[in-house]
């Protein structure tokens, strides 16, 4: 039987989902450099559609009240489809972690292109 998460409560509609913090962490000789994009939050799911993530596999694409679209999986690796903003992995027990997110990918490419110093100066200036 395929894995399927259910955020649907028959009597109340969709349950909220607790999203983990969205941050980039890179190792540095003196420790770690962390850039917090978004703190952990609870989001309301407003709808769900199925999308194909491989030739044989479909998952639910959840649209949140913020407009963000996410997939949730138990797999340790899943490429982010173009239709999804992020992919969450359900951890054993409870909670989630980001496998990938559009915002993380964008920031990581900017860091690669410009370096941490330029990113930090841009964030401080705003």
Spell out the blueprint of helices and strands.
Blueprint (H helix, E strand, L loop, with lengths): L7 E2 L3 E2 L2 E3 L2 E7 L2 E8 L2 E3 L1 E8 L5 E7 L4 E5 L12 E5 L5 E6 H13 L1 H10 L1
Parallel strand pairs: 9-10
Antiparallel strand pairs: 1-2, 3-6, 4-5, 7-8, 8-9, 10-11
Overview of this protein structure:
With 126 residues, the protein is α+β, with helices and mostly antiparallel strands. The chain contains two helices and eleven strands, in the order βββββββββββαα. A five-stranded mixed β-sheet has the order 7-8-9-10-11. The longest helix is centred in the C-terminal third of the chain and has 13 residues, at 102-114. The chain is globular and about 45 Å long. The N and C termini lie far apart (49 Å).
Trace the largest sheet across and list its strands: 7-8-9-10-11
Distance between the termini: 49 Å
What proportion of the residues is helical, as a percent range? 10-25%
Mean pLDDT, as a whole number? 83
Strand content: 35-45%
Number of strands: 11
Quaternary structure state of the chains depicted? single chain
């Amino acid at each position: 039987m395929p894995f399927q998460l259910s955020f649907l409560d028959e009597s109340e509609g969709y349950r909220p989902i607790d999203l983990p913090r969205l941050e980039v962490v890179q190792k540095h000789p003196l420790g770690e450099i962390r850039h917090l994009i978004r703190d952990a939050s609870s989001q309301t799911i407003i709808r769900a559609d199925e999308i194909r993530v491989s030739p044989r596999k479909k998952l639910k694409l959840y649209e949140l009240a913020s407009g963000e679209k996410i997939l949730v999986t138990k797999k340790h690796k899943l490429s982010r489809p173009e239709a999804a903003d992020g992919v969450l992995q359900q951890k054993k027990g409870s909670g989630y972690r980001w496998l990938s997110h559009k915002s993380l990918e964008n920031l990581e490419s900017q860091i690669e292109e410009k370096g941490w110093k330029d990113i930090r100066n841009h964030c401080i200036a705003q």
